[in-house]
Amino acid sequence: MEELSLWRWYGSLIYEHLADVLTMCRIWIVCYLASCFFFLGLDPWIDPRFFWLLVVAALTGLFDGIVARRTRKTPSEFGKNFDKVADKICEAFIFSVMITMICWAGQYWLLLFFIPSIRTESFLVGVSFYNHRNGNDDCANQWGKRKMALYFAIGILWLMPTGYWHFLQSATGISSGGYYYIFFALSLFTAAILGLVGFFEYLKKAYQDRK
User: Fold this and answer.
1) Are 124 and 144 in contact (CB under 8 A)?
2) CA–CA dist 156, 51 (Å, integer)
3) Is 39 a residue whose pLDDT tops 90?
4) Distance CA 104, CA 36 (A)
């Protein structure tokens, strides 16, 4: 009976923290991919593991919130903060890899579209620290979740191997041609707008909490 109750205790503990496990998996994945890219020098446009593992990371970001709502009766302060940290790590990975590969490709004009996103993320980090210091709840709003989903979509499409692109073009008969980089530029600009709207939502909530 004691052994059974011990297993039940471990099972309930894992069940309760399953969302945090998914969040940790997201961090592990991007750290592994970062080491493959920056230290081993693997090319994402040749090696398909970048594409598929980032898809898995995006899925963990999608399901950790769903799992948390189903396995916990009350929101976890650690879980909310841990999820935000994981998202920022993923954003840093996507930005750094894309910027490096853009420089490789010589498309330096595309770097201008990272400036609004980086500034918006800096604003959001500042607001998050301010709210945390003042004891305010600043869990991600819907605009922030949409922005993060778009960042993942941008990263997944950017890291899609060249062979996959050729297959899609031959299967659909559509050639991206010169619109490839324009698509990513518009996507980055859209993500920056979503982040800016989320930033104003944070400011609105902080103002209402002070009243």
Assistant:
1) yes
2) 6
3) yes
4) 17
Tell me the per-residue pLDDT of 56-71, one tens digit each, with 9 for 90 and over.
999 998 887 777 777 6
**Domain boundaries in the chain?**
2-210
Q: How is residue 194 written in tokens?
A: 């979503």
In degrees rounded to 5, what are phi and psi of residue 177? 55, -130
Token digits for 89? 């790590």
Going by C-beta distance under 8 Å and a sequence separation of 6 or more, which residues neighbour residue 37? 44, 50, 97, 100
C-alpha to C-alpha distance for 154 and 184, rounded to whole angstroms? 7
Count Cβ neighbours within 10 Å for each residue of 147-157 and write b for 16 or more, e otherwise: bbebbbebbbb
Q: What is the mean pLDDT of residues 37-51?
A: 93
pLDDT band at 1 (very low <50, low <70, confident <90, very high): very low
17 token code pair: 């923290």
Write the DSSP string, 164-193. Answer: HHHHHHHHH----TTHHHHHHHHHHHHHHH
Q: Which two tokens stand for residue 156?
A: 């997944």
Mean pLDDT, the chain, integer:
80
Average pLDDT on 183-204 reads 83
pTM comes to 0.83
Options 1.20.120, 1.10.3210, 3.40.1350, 3.40.50; CATH of 2-210: 1.20.120
The structure tokens listed for 54 are: 């980032």
